[in-house]
Amino acid sequence: MKNVTDSFVSLGHWPSAGSFGFNTDILATNPINLSVVLGVLIFFGKGVLTDLLDNRKQRILNTIRNSEELRRGAIEQLERARARLRKVEMEADEYRMNGYSEIEREKVNLINATSYSLEQLENYKNETLRFEQQRAINQVRQQVFQQALQGALGTLNSCLNSELHFRTISANIGILGAMKEITD
Hints:
Elements: H1 2-12, H2 26-159, H3 162-183
């Protein structure tokens, strides 16, 4: 430390006329060299450094402005997307409600159609039953009529003798002949 202070003290005692030479004391020459280099850098580099810092400042400000514009654009897009989402949700609710009412309407229509079909089937069944009953009644009547006719023919055949049979045929021929004369 004593060397450093001695070098500064010795600066003040330099003779004005002396020889030019190299100072080999590193500790004494470094502060002088540094102060000269810094002075030159500050004097000549001040403009360049100011320009570099100004350019850097402008780039940062431009980046901030661009970021703000992008942020505003993103906020606008977000608001538009939210508005579209609300609109789509409302439409979905409307479709859902319309779908439910449509389902209910279709359900009622299906129930009504099924009820109508069941009524038609019931009517067809009843009509078929009436038809079958009528057919059965007609068959029974026909059988009863045939049996009665056969019984009557049997009774007639057993009761009629040939003379009575001959008189009945003659009377019928007479009736037919009289009818022929009336029509002529």
